[in-house]
UniProtKB/TrEMBL annotation:
It holds the Pfam family MacB_PCD. PANTHER family: ABC TRANSPORTER PERMEASE YTRF, MEMBRANE COMPONENT OF TRANSPORTER-RELATED. The lineage of its organism: Bacteria, Bacillati, Actinomycetota, Actinomycetes, Micromonosporales. PROSITE patterns: PROKAR_LIPOPROTEIN. This is ABC3 transporter permease protein domain-containing protein. GO terms for molecular function: transmembrane transporter activity. It is a multi-pass membrane protein.
Length: 854
């Protein structure tokens, strides 16, 4: 059988090349997904500003939320903190006494930005100020003198070059929301390329400018020469014995500098897992479709082998070995593009903001082992499915059915189709009845998979049914070519279904996932920002606004109300709240004096004007679930892990699944990483021109460099994270849809090329090339229409309940051109993959084509 397998590969190169391409691209995508997954698991963040520290002590940037029982300290969910968790700098003396420690240095950072001609000078993602004492943790090499008293600053080399200043010059720096002039006493050279701008101040200035003075971001530990770093790490952990602290070495040290990188892990791992699962699912279908068509075209050959004594087991072995030979080569070679595709995907994902670009991309040997194994396994599964029926068919029946296969129904196929249909229906019910808000996508996504599998399993029958529906209008419009085309599609329904299935799959996955995301985006934008009224939004690019800026804005002509605006995330600790275990509550901070005007919220109890000091306004549903009302007290765990006791002053209605908790802006800002409010929301007085209002505001913030004046679309909400993930999901879905389109091309090219005899006979009895191409066009059009219709049905069944849940209407949100683009792409590919090989086949003389090997 191995000899026959090799001979088959030699004479049926096109069919097996299609299988090769399917496995090749599938393995490449899986390798890339494996790299993303491994990167998320390792989370290696090489240190930059702390590169000289052998060990770094930092606050744990995660918080353990009890899953069910608040007293159960073991069954907890670890969730990233929204803000930096600061630690006590007094720990320096404690660490200093650990054997093997040469020196321990506290590192503190705060927003500080050089401005030149009113514009911020930033190299990298942000600009931070530090005490000069922490510069040795770099280590930075100083050209000049360190800052020894107030009013002096040392700039890193990149900032000094961009700001065009040197030693002895004076420079304006925005820190703590105010602008001050400093004398440059030195230029510091970093040890390598930095992702953030660094400014170094004297100890007095650091304590004056830092909103979180008296706390530390991290403590860098310099070990004595010859000290075992891992052993030192263990001794420090034992000395501190605090579960809220982490002791870091190696590439983990950078997490102390870039706490936001920790939050990216929770997004990257599931993202890579879902994409990999989708790729594997599509790969199995693509390979099975391609290989199945190849086996169908050889049914006469297989029947002849059976008639001369080949057993069913030998036939299955031959098909399996053919698939194995092709899959092994394709799987090995598929790893090559994976080497480049993985870093490319990671770059795009990091650029989109899903994960910090400071995280090192890792793609070790595991993806290169797992991906080929999955590709080969998919090919073997496809070979088993494709070879099972022909091997069991009686030789005489196989020869009769070889030219025109009609039988496709089997009990396993029907049962599996019903099971997946039931699964899809159950997921729809769960989406419509149980799920709320954005989490509805957790069940809506898998639902389209179930629908697609169910339809694919019975696609020959559905193809024949839809072909019968399309036949009358097609025949009426296209005449003889329409008659021949419809007859071919209906009588070859089993083989045509092999081309319909990947089109259905591509349309279903692309349309469902694209519109799930656009619908979720609109819902998040609507419900997170609808409770905020702002005609003009002021945004700071230099760290934030001081508290008195809001009062100055309120006095500007044309201003009806103004409020500081802060966003964060946290948890309700007491009474116990089990509704936000997987993700924290969105927190919005507004100024109590203008809260009612800025939010436009109509409270059902209490008054938003009382939102000052240690108070909170809760969504009505949260008050009912927690059994608290106006005047009651709750304990809220804020984004920096601080627990604050707050008095409930108002309850207000909110869309389920998109609720937010309202807090005083100054309270929430004090527990944010910057310590300041980054935005101010302004509503215009009746009859005020927006441009005139913007001009008045520009005068009020003239002494706040880096202030942007924009419309309400600039309001920062929790929809921003949804938008970030949306862009990445669009990319990943496009890749999978593109891979599925390759299957469409493979299947149609192989199917058309395998009809040389038929097309040759047509031309021998008088058909012209134009007539034959028109017939093929009719067939391609029907294949495209049937695939699009079935894919649309699968996507609609998923999108309608999801849209009802999140938008309150059955029609999803999103531009219609997305659907047209998907349908147009599938249709264009169907025609190209049919007509181009068909045209090439007809270049052969009719007599030669009529006797060619199928």
């Amino acid at each position: 059988m191995m000899y026959l397998a090799w001979r088959t590969l030699r004479y049926r190169r096109l069919a097996f090349m299609a299988t090769f391409v399917a496995v090749f691209f599938g393995v490449a995508l899986i390798v890339a997904c494996g790299g993303l997954m491994e990167t998320g698991v390792r989370m290696a963040v090489p240190p930059q500003r702390l590169a000289a520290a052998d060990v770094v002590v930092s606050g744990k940037q995660t918080y353990g939320v009890p899953n069910k029982d608040p007293q159960d300290t073991k069954n907890i969910k670890s969730v990233p903190l929204a803000e930096r968790y600061w630690i006590d700098p007094a720990l320096v003396s404690k660490i200093q006494g650990v054997p093997g420690v040469e020196r321990a240095v506290a590192e503190s950072s705060f927003a500080a930005t050089v401005v030149r001609d009113g514009a911020p000078v930033i190299v990298g993602t942000t600009s931070l100020g530090h005490s000069w004492e922490s510069a040795e943790l770099g280590p930075y090499k100083l050209d000049g003198k360190p800052p020894t008293r107030a009013g002096q600053v040392v700039l890193d080399r990149a900032v000094a070059r961009l700001a065009r200043v040197g030693i002895g010059d004076r420079v304006d720096v925005v820190a703590g929301g105010t602008t001050s002039s400093f004398q440059v006493t030195g230029i510091a050279d970093p040890p390598g390329e930095m992702s953030q701008s660094a400014l170094f101040f004297s100890g007095d200035d650091e304590r004056r400018l830092n909103p979180h003075a008296g706390s530390a971001d991290a403590i860098g530990v310099l070990a004595k020469p010859g000290t075992d770093v891992e052993a030192l790490r263990g001794r420090i952990e034992q000395t501190l014995a605090d579960r809220k602290l982490v002791v870091l070495t190696g590439d983990d040290r950078g997490a102390a500098e870039f706490p936001a990188a920790i939050g990216g892990q929770a997004q990257l791992i599931p993202l890579a897992g879902v994409f990999a699962g989708m790729t594997v699912f599509v790969a199995i279908f693509v390979i099975a479709s391609t290989l199945g068509l190849s086996v169908q075209q050889r049914q006469k050959e297989i029947a002849l082998l059976r008639s001369i004594g080949a057993t069913p087991r030998q036939i299955r072995t031959m098909v399996r070995r053919e698939a194995l030979v092709v899959a092994v080569g394709a799987a090995i070679l598929g790893c090559v593009p994976g080497v480049f595709l993985g870093p490319l995907l990671y770059h795009l994902v990091s650029e989109a903001g899903v994960i910090s670009p400071v995280v090192t991309f890792h793609q070790g040997f595991i993806p290169y082992l797992a991906a080929p194994a999955i590709g080969i396994f998919a090919a073997l599964v496809a070979a088993y499915v494709a070879g099972r029926r022909p091997s069991k068919t009686r030789p005489t029946a196989g020869i009769a059915e070889a030219t025109l296969q009609r039988k496709w129904v089997s009990w396993p196929r029907v049962v599996l189709s019903l099971l997946f249909f039931a699964g899809g229906f159950a997921l729809i019910l769960v989406t419509a009845i149980v799920m709320e808000g954005a989490v509805a996508s957790a069940t809506a996504g898998p639902a389209v998979m179930c629908w697609a599998i169910s339809i694919a399993l019975i696609s020959p029958g559905l193809t024949r049914l839809l072909a019968a529906v399309l036949s009358p209008p097609v025949r009426a419009f296209f005449g003889l070519a329409g008659y021949l085309g419809t007859i071919n599609v209906r009588t070859r329904a089993v083989r045509v279904a092999a081309a319909v299935t990947p089109i259905m799959l591509a349309v279903a996955l692309a349309v469902a996932n694209f519109y799930l995301q656009t619908t979720q985006n609109e819902a998040a934008e609507r419900y997170y920002s609808d409770n905020l009224r702002a005609d003009v939004v002021l945004s700071s690019t230099t760290g934030g606004f001081p508290a008195d800026t809001v009062e100055a804005i309120r006095s500007a002509p044309g201003v009806e109300a103004a409020s500081a605006y802060v966003t964060s995330a946290g948890w309700i600790n007491k009474p116990y709240d089990g509704s936000h275990v997987e993700s924290p509550w969105p927190l919005q901070g507004v100024s109590g004096a203008s809260a009612a005007s800025i939010t436009g919220v109509q409270t059902v109890a209490g008054n938003l004007g009382d939102l000052t000091g240690d108070t909170v306004a809760l969504p009505e549903v949260a008050g009912k679930n927690l059994n608290v009302g106006v005047g009651d007290q709750i304990t809220l765990r804020l984004g920096d892990r601080s627990a604050v006791d707050l008095r409930v002053v108002a309850l207000y209605p909110a869309k389920e699944g998109f609720e937010t908790i309202l807090l005083p802006a100054d309270l929430l800002a004090a527990h944010s990483t910057t310590g300041l409010s980054r935005q101010i929301l302004v509503t215009a007085a009746p009859g005020t021109d927006r441009d005139a209002l913007a001009a008045n505001l520009r005068e009020k913030v003239a002494d706040h460099p880096g202030t942007m004046i924009e419309g309400r679309e600039a309001i920062t909400t929790f929809a921003e994270r949804t938008k970030t993930l949306a862009w990445v999901n669009y990319l990943l879905v496009a890749l999978v849809a593109g891979y599925t389109m390759i299957a469409v091309a493979n299947t149609l090219i192989v199917a058309t090329a395998g009809r040389r005899q038929e097309l040759g006979m047509q031309r021998l009895i008088g058909a012209t090339r134009r007539q034959s191409l028109l017939m093929l066009s009719v067939e391609a059009g029907m294949v495209a229409v049937i695939g699009v219709v079935l894919g649309t049905i699968a996507s609609i069944a998923t999108l309608m309940p999801f849209s009802i849940v999140v938008l309150g209407r059955p029609v999803p949100s999103g531009p219609f051109w997305i659907y047209l683009a998907v349908v147009g792409g599938a249709t264009l590919l169907a025609f190209a993959a049919t007509l181009l090989p068909g045209r090439r086949v007809m270049l052969v003389r009719p007599a030669e084509a009529a006797v060619a090997v199928e």
